[in-house]
Amino acid sequence: MVKLIHTLADHGDDVNCCAFSSSLLATCSLDKTVRLYSLSDFTELAHSPLKFHTYAVHCCCFSPSGHILASCSTDGTTVLWNTQNGQTLAVMVQPSGSPVRVCRFSPDSTCLVSGAADGTVILWNAQSYKLHRCGSVEDGSLVACAFSLDGNLFVTGSSCGDLTVWDDKMRCLHSEKAHDLGMTCCDFSSQPVSDGEQGLQCFRLASCGQDCQTKIWVVSFSHILGFKLKYKSALSGHSAPVLTCAFSHNGQMLVSGSVDKSVIVYDINTENILHTLTQHTRYVTTCAFAPNILLLATGSMDKTVNIWQFDPETLGQARSTEGQLKQFTEDWSEDDVSAWLCAQDLKDLVGVFKMNNIDGRELLNLTKESLADDLKIDGYSYEKKAMENWISKKKRTSPMTNLVLSSAVLTPNRTLKMAINRWLETHQK
Question: Closest Cα partner for 207 from 252, 270, 250, 164?
Fold first, then answer.
């Protein structure tokens, strides 16, 4: 069961985009404003609406920590806002001056992508606010963008229907016609999948377009085996062009909104329709799931944003986010764990985990002690150069425990890196 619990009607024109952080909801509109709401009671924040743009605001997105909000506009700018006080942090101007249709942060907060109506795509340094790299597609406006969970890839979609895959060096890995008449939105699932090929990073990708379809793809990438995009299936629940799509945080649901004024929620595993929501009176332009509670926001050309709440028992999920993630992880096979390790840039540990038959249930029970004692993984974080110097001197013991290291492989502490980037976000001037 899903029920409508709140309707926001503050915008004076079409709602173009909505986005969640862990505590806030952001919306933007043709009325040139961005609005921020508290998830505790859906009241608008005191410093909202955010006003800078001189034309329609097409897209908004939060940084992973939620401390920064990006918005982009027909005025050719992408603006970064401090969500705690509404102050403008930076105004990044598209070099061509073309209207900016979409923007997205990388998972580690270091970069921001902006895509424009003239087909240019810019990769900005999100800390210095400087242009880092740029590229372009051959035809059409860029209207969609999404990063893979590991940040190694991002995809863009164009009004001509092309889906283009880029690596983190802004190199074009692949491009193909994904939707006749034009693509409108895309989203990566936050949960990895296994396609049976060890060493590949595999993720579900959803795309939608003017052909009335939502398509599911499997994307895989490794520096050794390269890139692969597999078309999986098409969801044809809508009777008109599909304008928006988004995965739930646990990767088990996919939502889409359409010109037919409806919102459809799919079970991503069975591809069955779970719910069809028909409360909007005009085209549904945007949808987003909250990251850690069972909430869905949908926005429309009827100038409203609807907030929906799911019954966790009806969906067969636990009552808390922790329970949801735990239930999902418990069902992982050894191959699923291997895919997850690859997604975390820890593929060098796949062999160790497979040797010890670590499936989802075992993964949840791992502790620092079991990593060190049973799997012979050190479990401590060091500066990379210091450890390389330590190993170069033929030392094969842990600097902290003095235990013998079974492997000299160094694995990046991505969690620590993300925490550092989030600290920089909140303390930079």
Answer: 164
Q: Does residue 131 contact residue 122 with C-beta atoms inside 8 Å?
A: yes
Cα–Cα separations (whole angstroms), residue 109 to 127, 154, 186, 308, 417: 8, 14, 19, 28, 10
Instruction: Give 171-199 pLDDT, tens digit per residue.
Output: 999 999 999 999 999 999 988 876 555 55
Q: Among candidates 339, 351, 216, which has minimal Cα distance to 270?
A: 216
Chain mean position to CA 173: 19
In whole angstroms, what is the distance from residue 335 CA to residue 357 CA? 10
Rounded to 10 degrees, the C-alpha dihedral 83/86/87/90 comes to: 60
Whole-number Å distance between alpha carbons of 328 and 71: 33
Predicted model pTM: 0.74
Polymer length in residues for the chain: 429
What is the phi-psi region of residue 143: left when phi exceeds 0, alpha when psi lies from -120 to 50, beta otherwise? alpha
| 8 Å CB contact between 35 and 50 | yes
Neighbours of 385 (CB within 10 A): 8
**Distance from C-alpha of 272 to C-alpha of 274, rounded to nearest angstrom:** 6
Taking the C-alpha atoms of residue 315 and residue 256, their distance in angstroms, rounded to an integer, is 18
State the Cα–Cα distance between residues 24 and 146, nearest whole angstrom.
20
CA angle 28, 39, 317 (to 5 degrees): 110
Cβ atoms of residues 153 and 189 within 8 Å:
no
Strands (E) in 159-225, as ranges, are 162-167, 172-177, 183-192, 201-209, 214-222
Decide: residue 178, CB within 10 A, 0-12 exposed, 13-18 middle, 19+ buried. Answer: buried
Tens-place pLDDT, residues 262-290? 999 999 989 999 999 999 999 999 999 99
Residue 144 β-bridge partners: 157
For residue 213 the two structure tokens come to 């379809």
**211 touches 181 (CB < 8 A):** yes
Rounded (10°) CA dihedral 190, 195, 201, 206: -40
Q: Which two tokens stand for residue 178?
A: 């994904």
